[in-house]
Amino acid sequence: MIASVGVQQKRSDKRRFQRVGVSFSGRYMLPSRREGACQILDMSPGGLSLLASERPQPGDRVVVYIDKIGRFEGVAKRLTEGGFAISVELPPARREDLADRLTWFANRELLQREADDARAHERVIPLRRRTMLTLPDGRAVVARIRDLSNSGVSLETGESAAIGAKIVVGRSPASVVRLFPGGFAAAFARPFASGELDEATTL
Q1: What pLDDT does residue 116 have?
Q2: pLDDT tens column, 93-137
Q3: CA–CA separation, 128 vs 45, rounded Å?
Q4: Which CATH class is domain 2-118?
Q5: Where exactly are the structural domains of the chain?
């Protein structure tokens, strides 16, 4: 019985710290009571990392509210490019529930990636990758196109924008739908028609 409990504990600990890549929106609050929008990049029942415009000091307590998942309070462990990571302590029942939800999400993401791979030909890398990006505050900056599809564009830029923010890529209005280190992805307000997009397309 003791050996069985020990094995179960090791399995539980291993699952606890296994991080899953996610793309959840949320909000965070620093010890100064300042709040801001964030995007969760990866998560486990023992911690998470996120993109955020303001960062705490290591050791600060941070509260994170994740859409459709709930509230987490933890300690900032390290700063990352464009954000930070925290460790969290959860009651056993909630830890198990979160582990199950993350397992479900990871399986769903795997199926989604397989579907994305199947239609990878729809994405193109244009010959002219530099484009003008107009931010929500009206500033125009140069950005680099990572890839294009009929419905959207992935941009490399040092500028930040919140999910849902309205931008203009070249002459094409769009909305930010996903953040990643070094840039973001946006969906066009008017998607390209079938056959309208190729490597020679400019924005």
Answers
A1: 53
A2: 888 888 878 877 766 655 455 445 444 447 888 888 999 999 999
A3: 43
A4: mainly beta
A5: 2-118, 123-188
Tokens standing for residue 139 = 């500033």
DSSP state of 192: P
Segment of 15-19, 165-169, 174-178 carrying the highest mean pLDDT: 165-169
β-pair type (152-156, 183-188): antiparallel
Separation CA 42–CA 122 (nearest Å): 27
In angstroms, the CA 124 to CA 200 distance is 10
pLDDT in tens, 20-37: 878 888 999 999 999 999
Q: For residues 115 and 112, what is the distance between their CA atoms, to the nearest angstrom? A: 5
How far from 35 is each of 49, 62, 89, 97, CA to CA, in Å? 16, 10, 21, 27
Structure tokens at 83: 């954000």
**Helix, strand, or coil (residue 93):** helix
Amino acid at 130: R
Whole-model pTM over 0.85:
no
Q: Where are the beta strands (DSSP E) in the chain?
A: 20-29, 35-44, 47-52, 61-66, 70-80, 83-88, 130-134, 140-148, 152-156, 166-169, 172-180, 183-188
Longest CA span, the chain: 68
Work out whether the CA dihedral 98, 7, 19, 83 comes out positive or negative.
positive
